[in-house]
Amino acid sequence: MTPLGHRRLILTRHAKSAWDDPTLDDHDRPLNERGRRSARALGDWMASRGYEPEEVLCSTATRTRQTWDVVSGAPLEVRPVMRFEKSLYHAGPDRMLAVLRSATQPTVMMIGHNPGISEFAAMLPARAPLDPEFRSYPTAATLVVDFEVESWADIAPGNGSVMDFIRFDGRS
C-alpha cells in the first residue's frame, strides 16, 4: 500500500517468448522456459521487496498475460484489479502514459512490449538508473518508480523517482 499523495508504478517488459512456431501470430506467442524462469524470479523478487500491485494494466498478448500469470504465483498478498488493455500491445510511450493516467489504484503494475516500454521507462524518472541495459529494457526488466501526486492523471514525464530497476535473464 502506498501513502496518500503517492503513486508507484512497477513497469515490466514481458518475459522471454518462444519463436519456435512460425505459424503463430506475434500476438499469440507464449513464454519459453527461460521466460517462465525469469517471470518466477521476478515474482519472488517483488514479494521479497513488498512490491504489491493493486492494479495490473496488461497487454492482451499471450506473452504478457503469461508473464503476469507466473509472477502472480509468487507469495504476493494483494490480489490486484486486472485490466487487459488491447491498446498496450506494442504501444508507444504516449499511449502507455494515457493508459496509466486511467489507473484507479495507488500501486500499478504495467506489462508491455519493446520498443515502447523502453521509451516510456526512459521518460518517467527525473534521473534514469545507471544500469547499462536500462535503455534497451531487456525481457523481464522491471522499473519501480514513485510519483508524489494525488492521482495518476497528474503524473508528468520526468517527475518520477526510481526506487529499483532489475533484469532477469532466466538462464540459471
Structural notes for this entry:
By secondary structure, this protein is of the alpha/beta class. It has a domain at 15-103 and 119-130: 3-Layer(aba) Sandwich (Rossmann fold), CATH 3.40.50.1240. It has 4 helices and 6 strands, in the order βαβαβαβαββ. α2 links the parallel β2 (55-59) and β3. α1 (33-49) crosses α2 and α3 (93-101) packs across α4. The longest helix has 17 residues, at 33-49. It is globular. 40% of the residues are buried.
Please sum up the structure shown.
This protein is of the alpha/beta class and 172 residues long. It has four helices and six strands. The chain is globular, with a radius of gyration of 15 Å.
List the SSEs and their pairings.
Blueprint: E1 7-13, H1 33-49, E2 55-59, H2 62-71, E3 81-85, H3 93-101, E4 107-112, H4 116-123, E5 142-147, E6 161-166
Characteristic key phrases:
single chain; Rossmann fold; 6-stranded mixed sheet; globular
Helix content: 25-40%
CATH superfamily of the domain at 15-103 and 119-130: Phosphoglycerate mutase-like
Estimated radius of gyration: 15 Å
Total beta strand runs: 6
Global morphology: globular
Query: pLDDT under 50 segments (min length 5)?
Result: none
**CATH class value of the domain at 15-103 and 119-130:** Alpha Beta
**Terminal residue distance:** 32 Å
Percent strand equals 15-25%
Number of helices: 4
Q: In this structure, how is the largest beta sheet organized?
A: 6 strands, mixed
**Content-based structural category:** alpha/beta
Strand order of the largest sheet: 3-2-4-1-5-6
Query: Order of SSEs, N→C?
Result: EHEHEHEHEE
Which topology of the domain at 15-103 and 119-130 does CATH recognise? Rossmann fold
Kindly state the mean pLDDT as a whole number?
A: 93
